[in-house]
Amino acid sequence: MTQSTPTSYGTVTEDLPARPIWPAVLRGAKAKCPACGIGSLFEGYLTVRDHCPACGEALHHHRADDAPPYFTIVIVGHVIVSLVLSVEVAFHPPFWVHGLLWGPLTLISSLALLRPIKGALVAYQWALYMHGFDPNAPPEGPVPDPALEARQ
User: Fold this and answer.
1) Per-residue pLDDT for the chain (152 aa), expressed as one digit of tens each?
2) Structural domain boundaries, residue 71
3) SS3 for 126?
4) Is residue 98, in this structure, part of any structural domain at all?
5) Contact, 140 vs 132, CB < 8 A?
6) Is residue 31 part of a domain?
7) 121 — phi, psi (to 5°)?
8) Where are the alpha helices (DSSP H) in 2-55?
9) The pTM is what?
10) Is 4 part of any domain?
């Protein structure tokens, strides 16, 4: 009999092999499959593949949702605001220089960080057997609306 440990993201059973978190997260940040590190994690810029082309690992279970943009905004915002304040205090440039400098820098850094952050988040979910990555978890699907069932 295997013991189960309930967690906030599902149930982890002891018969599942441990997946190393940091190697998986680093592979995901490099846009590689968290399982093998060879296959590409993304089909396009942010579209996660259904399965790894190299090892066949199912990747469609991820639930990244709004977390990658949120983390991107937090990181870029802290860096850019710190730089803006430092430049303003040190050099006092006119406002048009701020706009010309920080607008494109904010856009470029946000676009550069969004994909690695999403890859790392998907790999983190894979490493912890979150959502559908746990083969022993019940299937996830839409929750029936009790109000609709009462009408029928």
Assistant:
1) 444 454 544 445 568 899 999 999 999 999 999 999 999 999 999 999 999 999 999 999 899 999 999 999 999 999 999 999 999 999 999 999 999 999 999 999 999 999 999 999 999 999 999 988 888 877 766 666 777 766 66
2) 19-136
3) helix
4) yes
5) yes
6) yes
7) -70, -40
8) 21-29
9) 0.83
10) no
What is the helix (H) or strand (E) element at residue 53, kind and residue range? Answer: none
Query: What gap in Å lies between CA 29 and CA 123, rounded to an integer?
Result: 8
| DSSP code per residue over 64-120 | -TTHHHHHHHHHHHHHHHHHHHHHHHHH---HHHHHHHHHHHHHHHHHHHHHHHHHH
Measure the CA–CA gap between 80 and 98, rounded to whole angstroms.
Answer: 11
12 by DSSP, 3-state: which?
strand
Q: What CA–CA distance (Å, rounded) separates 58 from 108?
A: 31
Locate 58 and state its tokens.
């199912």
Structure-block tokens of residue 142: 């839409």
- The token pair at 127 is 């490493």
Distances (CA, A) of 115 to 91, 104, 110: 34, 18, 9
